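Put briefly, the fold is written as integer tokens. The lines below illustrate.
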Amino acid sequence: MCELLAMSSRYPASVSFSLEEFARRGGMSGPHKDGWGIAFYEQGDVMLVREANSAATSPCVEFIRQQRYPSSIIIAHVRQATVGINALKNTQPFARELGGRMHVFAHNGDLAGIRTNPDFPLGMFHPVGETDSEWSFCHLMHMMQGLWLPRTALPSLDRRFQVIAAFARKIQPLGPANFVYSDGEYLFAHGHKRTQPGREGFHAPGLHWLCRTCSPGTRHVAISGLSFDPATRVPQQKALLVASVPLTDERWTPLKEGEIQVFKGGEPVSV
């Protein structure tokens, strides 16, 4: 199965260790060699970098690690191809504009029959590639259209959550439906089920999350999986990681099957 990684932080941060470990899963310590991508939110827009090659051997991954692009919301994905050829058009994350905002989505699992299912219309959004993941994202954007257009006021978190929850319920019967999604303000994570070591079939948890806090002013500000610029004098930094499997030996919180968590500023948000 594919691997997901996402981050939400109070102040812009850069991914260091997690991206390296994530890349190793993309062809070294895992079988995910069919492409990778990462999206960085910055001032309402998204810098999206994707390749159809293995993340584990990509010079571009090393370049991103060295550049340390700061962002408060990051979504990444490494692909194990099951539907669609190994090509850039089938590489996640996917991004679309709606209501003057960039929306980013990455999915883990197979959604059998979604492309021919009349219950999943696309409206004005259409996939570029062949994956069921992109088709499901286009359908989510179609469901979201009523919230974001016309652009008179931002939809409430409750209304956004209701649409995402309805979308999750629709895709769950089709197969593993783990996904992360962001509208640039909130990060949403839906945990479903995935393959588990030593067990047959698909079982929960499909996603895990970890919240870490650090204080500035030290020479090396260490948060497992993240790195921060120690010269940046900000109040207490908070960061939260979401991943398909725990990336460190710390105690990660598993999402229950069908659970949706909302994050903002490095913390869970109650809906």
About this structure: The longest strand covers residues 3-15. The chain has a mean pLDDT of 86. The chain has one domain: 3-269. The chain has four helices and 17 strands.
